[in-house]
Specification:
The chain is of the alpha/beta class. The chain has one domain: Nucleotidyltransferase, domain 5 (2-Layer Sandwich). About 35% of the residues lie in helices and about 20% in strands. It contains eight helices and six strands, in the order H-E-E-E-H-E-H-E-H-H-H-H-H-E. Strands 5-4-1-2-3-6 form a six-stranded mixed beta sheet, with helices on both faces. The longest helix is centred in the first third of the chain and has 14 residues. It starts with a helix and ends in a 10-residue tail after the last strand.
Length: about 200
């Protein structure tokens, strides 16, 4: 049943990242189930309910074909407030909170966060939010299939792809379709894409 509805499901979750200055940053990730496309909604050190609701508005503006999206799975984090739910309810998207203490209920998001950590962030020291944004935009953990990796030179791969090439998590490679993951940063209103 889930595969039949995959085109209509989004998953959202926070990925905590520790910096070299012992600060914790949070990356808000949204994943489309059918395409396995990852949207980086935002990065902050202090996620609040208002900030998360604004990121939801920004995401909905970027999703051009939101008529096909009908469900959003999220955990029961207190940062997902009623204002956040109202943003998606206004777009006729039903919120499905996961059961308490059931990380497998949002398995696609949890798996991506784990792979991002193992294949990329464990091999790079993050200095701050700007550095994390650059790294997360330029790296796509698991974006190459095993067959493509055999044919490419390891020297031509990015640092995170080399880490993925040597990763022990081969089961993930077998389970991931060839068009695996596409990371798309969410444009913010008023940003020109520069510094």
């Amino acid at each position: 049943m889930l595969s039949a509805q995959a085109h209509a499901i989004l998953a959202i979750d926070f990925a905590p990242v520790d910096t070299i200055f012992l600060r914790r940053l949070y990356v808000l990730l949204v994943i489309e189930h059918d395409r396995r496309r990852v949207h980086i909604a935002g990065i902050t050190a202090h996620p609040t309910g208002a900030w998360v609701a604004q990121q939801a508005r920004n995401l909905l503006m970027d999703l051009g074909d939101r008529d096909r999206i009908r469900f959003l799975t999220r955990d029961r984090d207190s940062k997902f407030t009623a204002a956040f739910d109202a943003v998606f309810a206004g777009a006729d998207i039903r919120i499905i909170p996961t059961p308490p203490r059931a990380s497998r209920a949002n398995a696609i998001a949890e798996r991506f966060i784990g792979n991002l950590r193992r294949e990329c962030l464990d091999h790079i020291l993050i200095a701050g939010p700007r550095h994390l944004e650059v790294v997360s935009k330029s790296s796509r953990p698991g974006h190459l299939t095993r067959r493509q990796m055999r044919t490419r030179s390891v020297r031509r791969m990015s640092r995170c792809s080399r880490a993925a090439h040597h990763a022990d998590d081969i089961a993930w490679w077998r389970a991931t379709p060839p068009n695996a993951i596409e990371v798309i940063p969410v444009r913010r209103p008023g940003s020109d894409g520069g510094s």
